[in-house]
Amino acid sequence: MSFPKDFLWGGATAANQCEGAWNEGEKGPSTSDVATGGSKEKAREFTRTIEDNLYYPNHEAVDFYHHYKEDIRLFAEMGYKCYRMSIAWTRIFPKGNEDKPNELGLQFYDNVFDECLKYGIEPIVSLSHFDTPLYLSDTYNGWKNRGLVDYFVKYGKAVIDRYHEKVKYWITFNEINSCLNGPFYVMGIRTEGNNKLQDIYQGTHHQFLASAKIVKYAHTTYPDIKVGAMYAGIFSYPHTCHPEDVIACQKDMDKQLYFTDVMCFGKYNDKASIFLKMNDFALVTYPEDEETLLNGKVDYLAFSYYMTLCSSRNKNIGLNLVGSAMNSEENEYLSEKTPWGVPLDPVGIRYALNLLYNRYQLPLFVVENGLGTYDRLEEDGSIHDEYRIDYTRKHIVEMKKAITNDGVPVIGYTTWSSIDIISAGTGEMSKRYGFIYVDKDDLGNGTLKRFRKDSFYWYKKVIASNGEYLD
């Protein structure tokens, strides 16, 4: 048994991490544009405004904005069937609340999609990927304010109307549960202190509504379009077979899957209601919200997968999403870790696929999976990243088992990432994920020249064989 004949192989990026050109084409600033550089030891910081004496890695990123033809040509050389990317909201509505979209921004993505389709590459498009308009954050405190529902729906309708003949698969919000770790970065919410979680869950309710309205609009207007949710892949094992560790694991997973439960089932289930009540989260809702959610259930579930955790009766993983910083027990069976402390668990992707399909009975799409580590550019321009090949191979093997042995329907697989880009968590370039090396360092120096890694040629063979070649 093998992968389905129409399986979508490809790679992924995000606008804020690859495009650059942060103030070109009448684009407005977003929450990503005030993110400074960080390091392996230090997370990024977010400023109120753009300050002259600070380095903002996303401002240039890897300059996909001016290199998209070259980059997509390289994706085509690898044989990509699809390319998962995002649209920058502030390229289309610079402040987020304008009456009419920015034609320069719309034309840019027309050009990108046309370039993809020229090579037979299907775009998979996220509407929001850590990219809230800064104006809406400053004026409304981001998604805490219900007004953002209407602004986002206007934006979503504008781009779906424009690109519905070019884009079949859409994702409303990237890693929607990641708001727990980065409320400003992800949602434009600056609240701190005791009300932080209350505001996050209120903001998430507004995102649920916005997503549901986009789904209904797409289904009503363009029936061939598929709209999905995306989950930041937090997957946990019980640390031991002690019954209380098993219960702790169930509770930890329920806290994370709260988000996809609402988007996939179209309602807050009993677990969610009890969770909100026990944590004194009082959501402000309108009478029509229940019907809105029910009519806006997603068509498929996309997710990222990098690691697994261990739940214990003795520790509370809590609501933090940063894997290496979570209050998780060590898994004694996982000895390998990345330089950033992420444990490597290829079998976990099979566990993740089964867990999600058992719960939701929806088609799944692995839209992020990859190894972030150091690469070395040799004098002859080669990059020997056999460790990335080994990582990707092992995950594909386990994904194939989930499809062929377990009966899990998987639409496709897009690695994180297609090309080296700015790290979302730290702003580093040295934490490299791509099959294509970009000559740029953590301080912004470099030529931006692209180089094919050994993994580039290996992944090309994988795609050409539809996952049969894995040597």
Automatic annotation (TrEMBL):
UniProtKB keywords: Glycosidase, Hydrolase
Residues covered by region (Disordered): 21-40
EC numbers on record: 3.2.1.86
Superkingdom of the source species: Bacteria
Annotated Pfam families: Glyco_hydro_1
TM spans (from-to): none
Single GO MF descriptor: 6-phospho-beta-glucosidase activity
Catalytic site: 368
InterPro entries xref list: GH, GH_1_N_CS, Glyco_hydro_1, Glyco_hydro_1_AS
Family recorded in the similarity comment: Belongs to the glycosyl hydrolase 1 family.
Protein name stated in the entry: 6-phospho-beta-glucosidase
